Protein: UDP-glucuronate decarboxylase
Amino acid sequence: MKKKILITGAAGFLGSHLCDRFVSEGYYVVGMDNFITGDKKNLLHLKSSPNFEFIEHDVTEYIKIEHDLDYILHFASPASPIDYLKIPIQTLKVGSLGTHNLLGLAKAKKARLLIASTSEVYGDPLVHPQTEEYYGNVNTIGPRGVYDEAKRFQESITMAYHRFHGLETRIVRIFNTYGPRMRLNDGRVIPAFMGQALRGEDLTIFGDGSQTRSFCYVDDQVEGIYRLLLSDYPYPVNIGNPHEITIKDFAEEIIKLTGTTQKLIYKDLPVNDPLQRQPDITLAKKLLKWEPKVSRAEGMKITYDYFKALSEAELYKSEH
Ligand code: NAD
Ligand code: UDP
Structure:
């Protein structure tokens, strides 16, 4: 019998790559999404697969699934700061009510649930690099709080189901991940810089560009999530690439990669934008025998080729 897995957020960037991975591993995959930040085209190639079906549904509403389920991956949630500032209430609801629905479903189906948490639970971190033991530094009432606190609540309720109901749970704390199928206009720094380079616009640096991030290629992230799901570890695990870079140096790398002749321009740093971020992946290395394999140069080249191949209409589609 094929193992059956429900993946929420299936039409999004990470969700669609996870659907691909589990279909290719021989699972029967049920994808679920309401398209609030996702795109049907991310799943078109799976349409004819006998091992994939899609249900259009908002996970904050009661979820009814006919199949038995072995696993659930809860990836539905806006993930770009611009998205969750635009739809703050939906962001809070999908992390709280949506997660509660999925926990109930997992309990009813006796399925193992893995939730997509985030480095944002560490907020603007005072510990560097960030280990899983760090409790974080989040402004609950700041504009980013809608995402950070939804994800923190998501972790708490997931652990409560684990402790109280004995549910099998997994928690991945994902650090900035990139690759093909990100939305060109989602406002995250990689699509933002690449879109600007392709349209011949100046690259917008928020703040002075000294803030750092550590970018993980999507295939590495998916491998880490796959191994975590199949592990027996119920507590949070960081998955990300520890190779840290300032946003200014990163913009220079994009200028070299794309050959753009545009310059860097500076805009205000968004409120509570974390000044530094780098995963400590000691735990993932030990527990999952996992570490990232794809260098930033390789991953960025693949991602740029993907954005370059998009139509003019997509390149100039304005969302904000
Ligand atoms: P994405 O916006 O591309 O995908 C999210 C998907 O969830 C979209 O298809 C959207 O339509 C769907 N969705 C949102 N609310 C929904 C709802 N109520 N019901 C059903 N579907 C809903 O974002 P992504 O980068 O693929 O992120 C996926 C998950 O991973 C999110 O939970 C995000 O918080 C987490 N994450 C991502 C990153 C990253 O760097 N990409 C980092 C940390 C955490
Ligand atoms: N950023 C930037 N210019 C942009 C978009 C983002 O300088 O056009 C910065 C942003 O302020 C942050 C970093 O790039 O410091 C990463 O932003 P992103 O939105 O990708 O994700 P975050 O890690 O902040 O969730």
Remarks:
- Residues 8-9, 11-15, 33-38, 58-60, 75-79, 94, 98, 116, 118, 174, 176-177 surround nicotinamide-adenine-dinucleotide (ligand 1) (CB under 6 Å).
- The radius of gyration is 19 Å.
